[in-house]
Design a protein that fits this description.
By secondary structure, this protein is α/β, with parallel strands linked by helices. It has eleven helices and ten strands. The strands form two sheets. Strands 1-2-3-5-7-10 form a six-stranded mixed beta sheet, with helices on both faces. Strand 2, helix 2 and strand 3 form a beta-alpha-beta unit. Helix 2 runs parallel beside helix 4. The chain is globular and about 55 Å long. The chain starts with a helix and ends in an 8-residue tail after the last helix.
Length: about 250
Protein backbone atom coordinates (compact mmCIF):
# COMPACT_ATOMS: atom_id res chain seq x y z
CA UNK A 1 0.00 0.00 0.00
CA UNK A 2 2.94 2.39 0.56
CA UNK A 3 3.68 2.59 -3.16
CA UNK A 4 0.02 3.43 -3.85
CA UNK A 5 0.05 6.24 -1.30
CA UNK A 6 3.33 7.58 -2.62
CA UNK A 7 2.22 8.03 -6.20
CA UNK A 8 -1.52 8.54 -6.04
CA UNK A 9 -4.10 10.13 -3.83
CA UNK A 10 -7.75 9.11 -3.98
CA UNK A 11 -10.92 10.63 -2.62
CA UNK A 12 -14.65 10.25 -3.28
CA UNK A 13 -17.47 12.73 -2.74
CA UNK A 14 -21.02 12.02 -1.62
CA UNK A 15 -22.20 11.66 -5.24
CA UNK A 16 -19.89 8.74 -5.90
CA UNK A 17 -17.40 10.80 -7.92
CA UNK A 18 -13.86 9.60 -7.19
CA UNK A 19 -10.69 11.53 -8.00
CA UNK A 20 -7.35 9.81 -8.53
CA UNK A 21 -4.43 12.24 -8.40
CA UNK A 22 -0.98 11.23 -9.67
CA UNK A 23 1.65 12.82 -7.41
CA UNK A 24 5.35 12.83 -6.49
CA UNK A 25 6.39 12.33 -10.12
CA UNK A 26 8.03 15.69 -10.82
CA UNK A 27 6.68 18.76 -12.64
CA UNK A 28 5.94 16.76 -15.81
CA UNK A 29 4.45 13.73 -14.00
CA UNK A 30 6.90 11.24 -15.48
CA UNK A 31 6.14 7.51 -15.46
CA UNK A 32 8.97 5.43 -14.04
CA UNK A 33 8.44 1.87 -12.81
CA UNK A 34 7.46 2.80 -9.22
CA UNK A 35 4.98 5.43 -10.45
CA UNK A 36 3.51 2.99 -12.98
CA UNK A 37 3.13 0.31 -10.32
CA UNK A 38 1.64 2.66 -7.73
CA UNK A 39 -0.92 4.08 -10.15
CA UNK A 40 -1.92 0.66 -11.44
CA UNK A 41 -2.38 -0.70 -7.94
CA UNK A 42 -4.32 2.41 -6.93
CA UNK A 43 -6.68 1.96 -9.87
CA UNK A 44 -7.15 -1.71 -9.08
CA UNK A 45 -8.07 -0.87 -5.49
CA UNK A 46 -10.54 1.80 -6.57
CA UNK A 47 -12.11 -0.59 -9.08
CA UNK A 48 -13.27 -2.75 -6.17
CA UNK A 49 -15.38 0.09 -4.77
CA UNK A 50 -18.94 -0.45 -5.99
CA UNK A 51 -19.97 3.03 -4.83
CA UNK A 52 -17.83 4.82 -7.44
CA UNK A 53 -19.94 6.11 -10.32
CA UNK A 54 -17.35 8.28 -12.12
CA UNK A 55 -13.56 8.50 -11.83
CA UNK A 56 -11.60 11.67 -12.58
CA UNK A 57 -7.93 11.03 -13.39
CA UNK A 58 -5.81 14.12 -12.72
CA UNK A 59 -2.24 14.99 -11.82
CA UNK A 60 -0.61 17.05 -9.12
CA UNK A 61 1.40 19.29 -11.45
CA UNK A 62 -0.51 21.65 -13.73
CA UNK A 63 2.36 21.62 -16.24
CA UNK A 64 1.34 18.24 -17.60
CA UNK A 65 -1.14 15.42 -17.57
CA UNK A 66 1.65 12.87 -17.97
CA UNK A 67 4.87 13.82 -19.74
CA UNK A 68 5.64 10.27 -20.82
CA UNK A 69 7.77 7.39 -19.63
CA UNK A 70 11.07 7.97 -17.84
CA UNK A 71 13.71 8.27 -20.56
CA UNK A 72 16.53 7.93 -18.03
CA UNK A 73 15.19 4.58 -16.88
CA UNK A 74 14.61 3.41 -20.45
CA UNK A 75 18.20 4.28 -21.41
CA UNK A 76 19.39 1.55 -19.02
CA UNK A 77 17.17 -1.22 -20.41
CA UNK A 78 18.11 -4.28 -22.40
CA UNK A 79 15.72 -6.41 -24.44
CA UNK A 80 14.33 -8.39 -21.51
CA UNK A 81 14.00 -5.46 -19.11
CA UNK A 82 12.51 -3.30 -21.89
CA UNK A 83 9.75 -5.84 -22.39
CA UNK A 84 9.15 -5.95 -18.62
CA UNK A 85 8.99 -2.15 -18.43
CA UNK A 86 6.58 -1.74 -21.33
CA UNK A 87 4.41 -4.61 -20.06
CA UNK A 88 3.99 -2.71 -16.80
CA UNK A 89 3.01 0.46 -18.64
CA UNK A 90 0.55 -1.55 -20.71
CA UNK A 91 -0.97 -2.94 -17.52
CA UNK A 92 -1.48 0.59 -16.22
CA UNK A 93 -3.25 1.64 -19.42
CA UNK A 94 -5.37 -1.49 -19.29
CA UNK A 95 -6.32 -0.81 -15.66
CA UNK A 96 -7.66 2.54 -16.85
CA UNK A 97 -9.47 1.02 -19.83
CA UNK A 98 -10.98 -1.81 -17.77
CA UNK A 99 -12.09 0.46 -14.91
CA UNK A 100 -15.76 -0.42 -14.44
CA UNK A 101 -17.14 3.13 -14.54
CA UNK A 102 -16.45 6.13 -16.83
CA UNK A 103 -13.00 7.68 -16.48
CA UNK A 104 -12.40 11.36 -17.30
CA UNK A 105 -8.87 12.57 -18.04
CA UNK A 106 -8.22 16.16 -16.86
CA UNK A 107 -5.38 17.44 -19.07
CA UNK A 108 -3.86 20.80 -18.09
CA UNK A 109 -0.61 20.64 -20.08
CA UNK A 110 1.83 18.25 -21.77
CA UNK A 111 0.47 14.82 -22.70
CA UNK A 112 3.25 12.79 -24.29
CA UNK A 113 4.02 9.19 -25.21
CA UNK A 114 2.89 6.84 -22.49
CA UNK A 115 0.89 9.70 -21.00
CA UNK A 116 -1.05 10.09 -24.22
CA UNK A 117 -1.71 6.35 -24.14
CA UNK A 118 -3.07 6.62 -20.59
CA UNK A 119 -5.32 9.45 -21.77
CA UNK A 120 -6.44 7.37 -24.75
CA UNK A 121 -7.43 4.58 -22.36
CA UNK A 122 -9.77 6.99 -20.53
CA UNK A 123 -13.36 7.35 -21.71
CA UNK A 124 -13.34 11.16 -21.92
CA UNK A 125 -10.62 13.78 -22.30
CA UNK A 126 -10.95 17.42 -21.25
CA UNK A 127 -7.98 19.75 -21.82
CA UNK A 128 -6.77 23.31 -21.49
CA UNK A 129 -6.01 25.13 -24.79
CA UNK A 130 -2.32 25.23 -23.83
CA UNK A 131 -2.09 21.42 -23.66
CA UNK A 132 0.28 19.76 -26.13
CA UNK A 133 0.16 16.20 -27.46
CA UNK A 134 2.80 14.00 -29.08
CA UNK A 135 4.03 10.45 -29.52
CA UNK A 136 7.76 11.22 -29.72
CA UNK A 137 9.11 7.70 -29.23
CA UNK A 138 10.57 7.38 -32.74
CA UNK A 139 12.70 10.44 -32.04
CA UNK A 140 14.49 8.53 -29.26
CA UNK A 141 14.87 5.32 -31.24
CA UNK A 142 11.84 3.25 -30.16
CA UNK A 143 8.39 2.69 -31.68
CA UNK A 144 5.08 3.60 -30.08
CA UNK A 145 3.50 0.38 -28.84
CA UNK A 146 0.92 -1.03 -26.36
CA UNK A 147 -2.10 1.30 -26.12
CA UNK A 148 -1.02 3.49 -29.00
CA UNK A 149 -3.11 0.84 -30.75
CA UNK A 150 -6.18 2.71 -29.50
CA UNK A 151 -5.32 5.78 -31.56
CA UNK A 152 -6.59 4.59 -34.98
CA UNK A 153 -9.97 3.97 -33.33
CA UNK A 154 -10.00 7.48 -31.93
CA UNK A 155 -8.43 9.63 -34.65
CA UNK A 156 -8.12 7.36 -37.71
CA UNK A 157 -5.20 5.53 -39.28
CA UNK A 158 -3.75 8.45 -41.23
CA UNK A 159 -3.58 10.82 -38.29
CA UNK A 160 -2.19 8.05 -36.11
CA UNK A 161 0.61 7.49 -38.63
CA UNK A 162 1.33 11.22 -38.58
CA UNK A 163 1.74 11.20 -34.79
CA UNK A 164 3.70 7.97 -34.35
CA UNK A 165 5.89 8.18 -37.48
CA UNK A 166 6.86 11.85 -37.30
CA UNK A 167 6.84 12.39 -33.52
CA UNK A 168 5.17 15.73 -34.24
CA UNK A 169 3.54 17.79 -31.50
CA UNK A 170 -0.04 19.00 -31.95
CA UNK A 171 -1.96 21.57 -29.94
CA UNK A 172 -5.25 21.13 -28.11
CA UNK A 173 -7.32 22.64 -30.92
CA UNK A 174 -5.90 20.12 -33.39
CA UNK A 175 -6.37 17.25 -30.95
CA UNK A 176 -10.02 18.28 -30.59
CA UNK A 177 -10.49 18.60 -34.35
CA UNK A 178 -8.98 15.14 -34.80
CA UNK A 179 -11.41 13.66 -32.28
CA UNK A 180 -8.94 12.89 -29.50
CA UNK A 181 -10.30 15.54 -27.12
CA UNK A 182 -13.93 15.94 -26.15
CA UNK A 183 -13.69 19.43 -24.63
CA UNK A 184 -11.12 22.24 -24.71
CA UNK A 185 -11.63 24.98 -22.14
CA UNK A 186 -9.63 27.73 -20.50
CA UNK A 187 -7.35 26.52 -17.69
CA UNK A 188 -9.53 28.28 -15.12
CA UNK A 189 -12.52 26.35 -16.45
CA UNK A 190 -11.02 22.86 -16.45
CA UNK A 191 -12.58 21.78 -13.19
CA UNK A 192 -15.96 23.27 -14.15
CA UNK A 193 -15.89 21.40 -17.47
CA UNK A 194 -15.02 18.15 -15.70
CA UNK A 195 -17.82 18.74 -13.21
CA UNK A 196 -20.29 19.49 -16.01
CA UNK A 197 -19.51 16.19 -17.74
CA UNK A 198 -19.61 14.39 -14.40
CA UNK A 199 -23.08 15.82 -13.79
CA UNK A 200 -24.28 14.48 -17.13
CA UNK A 201 -22.95 11.02 -16.33
CA UNK A 202 -24.57 11.03 -12.89
CA UNK A 203 -28.00 11.44 -14.50
CA UNK A 204 -27.55 8.01 -16.11
CA UNK A 205 -28.18 4.64 -14.57
CA UNK A 206 -25.09 3.45 -12.68
CA UNK A 207 -25.34 -0.16 -13.86
CA UNK A 208 -26.40 0.93 -17.35
CA UNK A 209 -23.25 3.03 -17.72
CA UNK A 210 -21.08 0.14 -16.59
CA UNK A 211 -22.77 -2.11 -19.17
CA UNK A 212 -22.36 0.56 -21.83
CA UNK A 213 -18.64 0.80 -21.11
CA UNK A 214 -18.31 -2.97 -21.58
CA UNK A 215 -20.15 -2.69 -24.89
CA UNK A 216 -17.94 0.17 -26.06
CA UNK A 217 -14.84 -1.94 -25.39
CA UNK A 218 -16.36 -4.81 -27.35
CA UNK A 219 -17.15 -2.50 -30.26
CA UNK A 220 -13.45 -1.61 -30.38
CA UNK A 221 -12.30 -5.21 -30.28
CA UNK A 222 -14.82 -7.61 -31.82
CA UNK A 223 -16.35 -8.20 -35.27
CA UNK A 224 -19.72 -6.54 -35.85
CA UNK A 225 -21.86 -9.67 -35.62
CA UNK A 226 -20.20 -10.71 -32.35
CA UNK A 227 -20.91 -7.26 -30.92
CA UNK A 228 -24.56 -7.46 -31.95
CA UNK A 229 -24.98 -10.98 -30.59
CA UNK A 230 -23.24 -10.27 -27.27
CA UNK A 231 -25.26 -7.12 -26.69
CA UNK A 232 -28.54 -9.02 -26.48
CA UNK A 233 -27.56 -10.82 -23.27
CA UNK A 234 -26.14 -7.61 -21.77
CA UNK A 235 -29.41 -5.83 -22.57
CA UNK A 236 -31.37 -8.60 -20.87
CA UNK A 237 -29.22 -8.55 -17.75
CA UNK A 238 -29.89 -4.86 -17.23
CA UNK A 239 -33.47 -5.76 -16.35
CA UNK A 240 -32.12 -7.59 -13.30
CA UNK A 241 -30.70 -4.35 -11.90
CA UNK A 242 -34.01 -2.61 -11.30
CA UNK A 243 -32.84 0.50 -13.16
CA UNK A 244 -35.15 0.14 -16.20
CA UNK A 245 -38.14 -0.41 -13.93
CA UNK A 246 -37.20 2.60 -11.84
Amino acid sequence: MDIINEFCGAEMDTRGVATLTMRNAGPLNILDTPAITGLRMGLEELAKNQQIRVLVFRTESEKAFIGGADIKEMARLDQASAETFITGLGQLCEAVRQFPTPVIARIPGWCLGGGLEVAAACDFRIAAPTAKFAMPEVKVGIPSVIHAALLPRLIGSGRTRWLVMTGATIDAATARDWGFLDVVTEPSGLDAAVDSLTGELLTCGHEALKAQKVLCRQWDELPLQDCVRNSIAIFGRTFLTGEPQQ
